[in-house]
């Protein structure tokens, strides 16, 4: 199964591209990829620059838990 950070890198196009969107180095993104999660304080930034295509719940489930179930109307 693809991790949230792997999905974010794929959507952005590369570690460098994701780093550029966030104002970070590719090495910082590589560190997140090696750890398998984005630090909790950066998850909303990633979620925002990728227009919600990857969520904070995917990026760091240890901090944010499971995504809430959608509310049906």
From TrEMBL:
<dbReference type="InterPro" id="IPR010982">
    <property type="entry name" value="Lambda_DNA-bd_dom_sf"/>
</dbReference>
<dbReference type="Pfam" id="PF15943">
    <property type="entry name" value="YdaS_toxin"/>
</dbReference>
<dbReference type="GO" id="GO:0003677">
    <property type="term" value="F:DNA binding"/>
</dbReference>
<dbReference type="InterPro" id="IPR031856">
    <property type="entry name" value="YdaS_toxin-like"/>
</dbReference>
<protein>
    <submittedName>
        <fullName>YdaS antitoxin of YdaST toxin-antitoxin system</fullName>
    </submittedName>
</protein>
